[in-house]
Amino acid sequence: MSTGRTERRSGTRSSREVATQTQAAGDSAVDDQALVAALKADEEWAFETMVRLHGGRLLAVARRFMQNEHDAQDVLQSAYLSAFRALADFEGACQLSTWLHRIVVNTALMRIRSRRRKPEESIETLLPAFQEDGHHAEQFSDWTASADLLLERAELRALVRNCIDELPEIYRVVLLLRDIEEMSTQEVADVLGLTATAVKVRLHRARQALLTLLRREYAPPLMTTV
Protein backbone atom coordinates (compact mmCIF):
# COMPACT_ATOMS: atom_id res chain seq x y z
CA MET A 1 0.00 0.00 0.00
CA SER A 2 2.73 2.43 1.01
CA THR A 3 4.70 1.51 -2.08
CA GLY A 4 1.73 2.42 -4.30
CA ARG A 5 1.35 5.76 -2.57
CA THR A 6 5.08 6.39 -2.95
CA GLU A 7 4.90 5.67 -6.69
CA ARG A 8 1.90 7.93 -7.14
CA ARG A 9 3.59 10.70 -5.20
CA SER A 10 6.77 10.16 -7.19
CA GLY A 11 4.82 10.35 -10.45
CA THR A 12 3.06 13.55 -9.38
CA ARG A 13 6.30 15.10 -8.24
CA SER A 14 7.97 14.17 -11.51
CA SER A 15 5.18 15.85 -13.48
CA ARG A 16 5.51 19.00 -11.44
CA GLU A 17 9.27 18.97 -11.88
CA VAL A 18 8.86 18.79 -15.65
CA ALA A 19 6.41 21.68 -15.56
CA THR A 20 8.76 23.73 -13.39
CA GLN A 21 11.71 22.99 -15.66
CA THR A 22 9.62 23.99 -18.67
CA GLN A 23 8.78 27.37 -17.19
CA ALA A 24 12.38 27.95 -16.11
CA ALA A 25 14.18 26.77 -19.25
CA GLY A 26 11.56 27.50 -21.91
CA ASP A 27 9.24 25.26 -23.90
CA SER A 28 12.11 23.86 -25.96
CA ALA A 29 13.27 22.01 -22.84
CA VAL A 30 10.34 19.58 -23.11
CA ASP A 31 10.71 16.74 -25.58
CA ASP A 32 7.82 15.13 -27.45
CA GLN A 33 7.77 12.01 -25.28
CA ALA A 34 7.44 13.93 -22.02
CA LEU A 35 4.84 16.29 -23.47
CA VAL A 36 2.72 13.49 -24.93
CA ALA A 37 2.86 11.57 -21.64
CA ALA A 38 1.71 14.66 -19.77
CA LEU A 39 -1.07 15.31 -22.29
CA LYS A 40 -2.31 11.73 -21.88
CA ALA A 41 -2.23 12.26 -18.10
CA ASP A 42 -4.44 15.34 -18.60
CA GLU A 43 -1.84 17.70 -17.12
CA GLU A 44 -2.97 21.31 -17.54
CA TRP A 45 0.55 22.63 -18.05
CA ALA A 46 1.00 20.21 -20.98
CA PHE A 47 -1.93 21.65 -22.91
CA GLU A 48 -0.65 25.20 -22.34
CA THR A 49 2.82 24.15 -23.47
CA MET A 50 1.47 22.44 -26.59
CA VAL A 51 -0.44 25.58 -27.57
CA ARG A 52 2.61 27.79 -27.01
CA LEU A 53 4.86 25.45 -28.99
CA HIS A 54 2.60 24.63 -31.90
CA GLY A 55 -0.47 26.90 -31.83
CA GLY A 56 0.95 29.64 -34.04
CA ARG A 57 2.08 27.30 -36.81
CA LEU A 58 -1.14 25.30 -36.65
CA LEU A 59 -3.25 28.44 -36.94
CA ALA A 60 -1.19 29.48 -39.98
CA VAL A 61 -2.02 26.11 -41.58
CA ALA A 62 -5.73 26.58 -40.87
CA ARG A 63 -5.61 30.10 -42.34
CA ARG A 64 -4.14 28.75 -45.59
CA PHE A 65 -7.18 26.57 -46.15
CA MET A 66 -9.94 28.69 -44.68
CA GLN A 67 -10.55 32.12 -46.16
CA ASN A 68 -11.55 34.02 -43.03
CA GLU A 69 -10.19 34.24 -39.51
CA HIS A 70 -13.33 32.92 -37.81
CA ASP A 71 -13.28 29.69 -39.83
CA ALA A 72 -9.54 29.25 -39.27
CA GLN A 73 -9.93 29.63 -35.50
CA ASP A 74 -12.89 27.25 -35.54
CA VAL A 75 -10.91 24.65 -37.49
CA LEU A 76 -8.02 24.91 -35.03
CA GLN A 77 -10.28 24.41 -32.01
CA SER A 78 -11.96 21.42 -33.69
CA ALA A 79 -8.52 20.00 -34.49
CA TYR A 80 -7.47 20.30 -30.84
CA LEU A 81 -10.57 18.37 -29.80
CA SER A 82 -9.88 15.68 -32.41
CA ALA A 83 -6.28 15.44 -31.22
CA PHE A 84 -7.27 14.91 -27.59
CA ARG A 85 -9.79 12.24 -28.56
CA ALA A 86 -7.06 10.43 -30.50
CA LEU A 87 -4.23 10.88 -27.98
CA ALA A 88 -4.56 7.34 -26.65
CA ASP A 89 -3.75 6.02 -30.13
CA PHE A 90 -0.74 8.28 -30.67
CA GLU A 91 2.35 6.08 -30.33
CA GLY A 92 5.04 8.56 -31.32
CA ALA A 93 5.75 7.14 -34.79
CA CYS A 94 6.12 10.77 -35.94
CA GLN A 95 6.74 14.06 -34.16
CA LEU A 96 3.85 15.56 -32.22
CA SER A 97 3.99 18.66 -34.43
CA THR A 98 3.63 16.54 -37.58
CA TRP A 99 0.70 14.63 -36.10
CA LEU A 100 -1.08 17.85 -35.07
CA HIS A 101 -0.38 19.38 -38.49
CA ARG A 102 -2.10 16.47 -40.24
CA ILE A 103 -5.11 16.74 -37.96
CA VAL A 104 -5.49 20.46 -38.75
CA VAL A 105 -5.26 19.81 -42.50
CA ASN A 106 -7.82 16.98 -42.31
CA THR A 107 -10.14 19.10 -40.18
CA ALA A 108 -9.93 21.96 -42.68
CA LEU A 109 -10.64 19.62 -45.59
CA MET A 110 -13.66 18.14 -43.83
CA ARG A 111 -14.98 21.65 -43.22
CA ILE A 112 -14.50 22.56 -46.89
CA ARG A 113 -16.22 19.37 -48.09
CA SER A 114 -19.16 19.84 -45.72
CA ARG A 115 -19.97 23.28 -47.08
CA ARG A 116 -19.49 22.49 -50.78
CA ARG A 117 -22.97 23.04 -52.16
CA LYS A 118 -22.48 25.31 -55.17
CA PRO A 119 -21.33 24.11 -58.61
CA GLU A 120 -17.59 24.00 -59.18
CA GLU A 121 -16.24 27.37 -60.28
CA SER A 122 -14.51 27.75 -63.64
CA ILE A 123 -10.84 28.62 -63.76
CA GLU A 124 -10.82 29.52 -67.46
CA THR A 125 -10.76 33.29 -66.93
CA LEU A 126 -7.59 32.95 -64.84
CA LEU A 127 -5.65 30.84 -67.33
CA PRO A 128 -3.21 32.49 -69.75
CA ALA A 129 -4.73 33.40 -73.12
CA PHE A 130 -2.88 32.90 -76.40
CA GLN A 131 -3.13 34.49 -79.83
CA GLU A 132 -3.35 32.43 -83.03
CA ASP A 133 0.42 32.74 -83.54
CA GLY A 134 1.02 31.17 -80.11
CA HIS A 135 2.10 34.36 -78.31
CA HIS A 136 0.52 35.44 -75.06
CA ALA A 137 -2.49 37.68 -75.60
CA GLU A 138 -1.40 39.70 -72.55
CA GLN A 139 2.11 41.15 -72.63
CA PHE A 140 3.66 41.82 -69.22
CA SER A 141 6.47 44.12 -68.21
CA ASP A 142 9.73 42.42 -67.24
CA TRP A 143 9.71 40.65 -63.89
CA THR A 144 13.37 41.25 -63.16
CA ALA A 145 13.64 40.82 -59.37
CA SER A 146 15.32 37.57 -58.35
CA ALA A 147 13.20 34.88 -56.68
CA ASP A 148 15.14 34.88 -53.42
CA LEU A 149 14.79 38.66 -53.13
CA LEU A 150 11.06 38.48 -53.79
CA LEU A 151 10.57 35.80 -51.16
CA GLU A 152 12.26 37.98 -48.55
CA ARG A 153 9.60 40.63 -48.95
CA ALA A 154 6.66 40.36 -46.59
CA GLU A 155 4.39 42.15 -49.03
CA LEU A 156 5.08 39.53 -51.71
CA ARG A 157 4.21 36.70 -49.34
CA ALA A 158 0.92 38.48 -48.64
CA LEU A 159 0.38 38.94 -52.38
CA VAL A 160 0.95 35.24 -53.09
CA ARG A 161 -1.54 34.33 -50.35
CA ASN A 162 -4.10 36.75 -51.75
CA CYS A 163 -3.66 35.36 -55.26
CA ILE A 164 -4.02 31.78 -54.02
CA ASP A 165 -7.24 32.81 -52.30
CA GLU A 166 -8.60 34.01 -55.67
CA LEU A 167 -8.39 30.52 -57.16
CA PRO A 168 -11.60 28.45 -57.31
CA GLU A 169 -11.73 26.26 -54.22
CA ILE A 170 -10.95 22.85 -55.70
CA TYR A 171 -7.91 24.24 -57.51
CA ARG A 172 -6.82 26.22 -54.44
CA VAL A 173 -7.00 23.14 -52.21
CA VAL A 174 -5.07 20.97 -54.67
CA LEU A 175 -2.36 23.63 -54.93
CA LEU A 176 -2.11 23.97 -51.14
CA LEU A 177 -1.92 20.23 -50.54
CA ARG A 178 0.59 19.57 -53.31
CA ASP A 179 2.87 22.62 -53.26
CA ILE A 180 2.55 23.92 -49.69
CA GLU A 181 1.82 20.77 -47.68
CA GLU A 182 4.09 18.78 -50.05
CA MET A 183 1.77 15.78 -50.21
CA SER A 184 2.28 13.33 -53.06
CA THR A 185 -0.11 13.25 -56.02
CA GLN A 186 -1.60 9.97 -54.81
CA GLU A 187 -2.02 11.28 -51.26
CA VAL A 188 -3.90 14.31 -52.57
CA ALA A 189 -6.03 12.06 -54.77
CA ASP A 190 -6.91 9.84 -51.80
CA VAL A 191 -7.75 12.77 -49.54
CA LEU A 192 -9.97 14.52 -52.12
CA GLY A 193 -11.50 11.44 -53.70
CA LEU A 194 -10.02 12.19 -57.12
CA THR A 195 -7.95 10.22 -59.58
CA ALA A 196 -4.22 10.93 -59.72
CA THR A 197 -4.71 12.22 -63.28
CA ALA A 198 -7.38 14.68 -62.14
CA VAL A 199 -5.04 15.96 -59.42
CA LYS A 200 -2.24 16.50 -61.95
CA VAL A 201 -4.55 18.37 -64.34
CA ARG A 202 -5.99 20.59 -61.62
CA LEU A 203 -2.56 21.28 -60.15
CA HIS A 204 -1.20 22.31 -63.57
CA ARG A 205 -4.14 24.63 -64.18
CA ALA A 206 -3.92 26.05 -60.66
CA ARG A 207 -0.22 26.86 -61.14
CA GLN A 208 -0.93 28.52 -64.48
CA ALA A 209 -3.72 30.60 -62.98
CA LEU A 210 -1.59 31.60 -59.98
CA LEU A 211 1.24 32.73 -62.25
CA THR A 212 -1.22 34.81 -64.30
CA LEU A 213 -2.57 36.45 -61.16
CA LEU A 214 0.91 37.17 -59.81
CA ARG A 215 1.98 38.72 -63.11
CA ARG A 216 -1.09 40.94 -63.18
CA GLU A 217 -0.40 42.13 -59.65
CA TYR A 218 3.40 42.32 -59.61
CA ALA A 219 4.25 42.91 -63.27
CA PRO A 220 1.28 44.80 -64.74
CA PRO A 221 0.51 44.51 -68.48
CA LEU A 222 2.40 46.85 -70.76
CA MET A 223 0.44 49.82 -72.05
CA THR A 224 -0.15 49.70 -75.79
CA THR A 225 -0.25 52.80 -77.95
CA VAL A 226 -2.98 53.32 -80.53
Question: What brief labels describe this structure?
Answer:
about 230 residues, Rna Polymerase Sigma Factor, Chain: A, disordered N terminus, mainly alpha, Arc Repressor Mutant, subunit A, 2 domains
Structure description:
With 226 residues, this protein is mainly α. It folds into 2 domains: 2-114, Rna Polymerase Sigma Factor, Chain: A, CATH 1.10.1740; 124-218, Orthogonal Bundle (Arc Repressor Mutant, subunit A), CATH 1.10.10.10. The protein is built from 10 helices and no strands. It is elongated. It starts with a helix and ends in an 8-residue tail after the last helix. Residues 1-13, 18-25, 133-137, 140-148 and 222-226 have low confidence and may be disordered.
Topology, pairings included?
Layout: H1 2-25, H2 32-40, H3 44-65, H4 69-86, H5 96-114, H6 147-151, H7 154-166, H8 169-180, H9 185-192, H10 196-218
**Rg calc:** 24 Å
Which superfamily, in CATH terms, is the homologous superfamily of the largest domain?
Answer: RNA polymerase sigma factor, region 2, helix turn helix motif
Low-confidence stretches: 1-13, 18-25, 133-137, 140-148, 222-226
Mean pLDDT: 77
Distance between the termini: 97 Å
Outline: elongated
- Predict the CATH topology of the largest domain: Rna Polymerase Sigma Factor, Chain: A
Percent strand: under 5%
CATH architecture of the largest domain: Orthogonal Bundle
Question: Helix fraction?
Answer: 55-70%
Task: Give the total of domains.
Answer: 2
Tally of separate helices? 10
State the CATH class of the largest domain: Mainly Alpha
Following the backbone from N to C, one meets helices and strands in this order, namely HHHHHHHHHH
What is the count of β-strands?
0
